[in-house]
């Protein structure tokens, strides 16, 4: 699986676009490993509508308009660094999971089309993942200060 980083200042704009234009099939939230790794929330989103409301210090997750999980953004707001990443899950011709150990163009023809796209971030020491079937389209945005590429969800596709 390879990951493509989204600039932190565009996190919630990209999350909104993804939820409004793609159909997520699951959500998964767990403590990061050093905080126990326990699953805090997991749900299939088949025939359900995932949404969010962002306040200054909280991210409220809603499923079918009902609040299901509240994530604190206090530490996120203080931290500099990475925002969301979008990971592609791919299989080779034999059905084996593909691990890419290099920075690649998300549309590199050497690799199969992704069967799953996972939008992920860490908030308040909780890993937050939303999975979408197939490809959520990306486009190159710019290089960051460390010469690392940033991408955004492509709104033209």
Describe this structure in words.
By secondary structure, this protein is mainly beta. It has one domain. Helices cover about 10% and strands about 40% of the residues. It has helices spanning about 10-20, 75-80; strands at about 1-5, 25-30, 40-45, 50-55, 60-65, 65-70, 85-90, 115-125, 125-135, 140-145, 150-155. The strands form 3 sheets. The chain has a 6-stranded antiparallel sheet with strand order 1-7-8-9-2-3, with no helix packed on it. A hairpin with a 3-residue loop joins strand 4 (about 50-55) and strand 5 (about 60-65). The chain is globular. The relative contact order is 0.26.
Identify the notable features of this structure and list them briefly.
157 residues; mainly beta; globular; single chain; 2 helices
Which overall shape is indicated by the principal axes computed on the Cα atoms? Answer: globular
Low-confidence stretches: none
User: Any idea how many domains?
Assistant: 1
Estimate percent helicity: 10-25%
The helix tally amounts to 2
What's the short story on this structure?
The protein is mainly beta. 10% of the residues lie in helices and 42% in strands.
Helices and strands in order:
Elements: E1 2-5, H1 11-21, E2 26-31, E3 39-44, E4 50-54, E5 58-63, E6 66-72, H2 74-78, E7 85-89, E8 116-123, E9 126-133, E10 138-143, E11 149-153
């Amino acid at each position: 699986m390879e990951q493509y980083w989204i600039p932190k200042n565009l996190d919630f704009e990209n999350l909104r676009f993804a939820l409004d234009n793609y159909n997520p099939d699951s959500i998964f939230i767990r403590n990061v490993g050093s905080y126990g790794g326990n699953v805090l929330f997991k749900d299939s989103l088949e025939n359900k509508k995932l949404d969010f409301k962002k306040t200054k210090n909280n991210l409220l997750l809603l499923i079918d308009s009902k609040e299901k999980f509240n994530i604190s953004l206090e530490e996120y707001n203080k931290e500099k660094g990475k925002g969301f990443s979008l990971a592609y899950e791919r299989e080779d011709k034999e059905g084996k999971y593909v691990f890419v150990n290099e920075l690649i163009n998300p549309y590199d023809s050497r690799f199969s089309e992704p069967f799953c796209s996972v939008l992920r971030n860490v908030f308040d020491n909780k890993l937050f993942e939303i999975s979408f079937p197939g490809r959520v389209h990306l486009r190159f945005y710019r290089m960051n200060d460390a010469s690392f590429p940033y991408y955004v969800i492509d709104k033209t596709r």
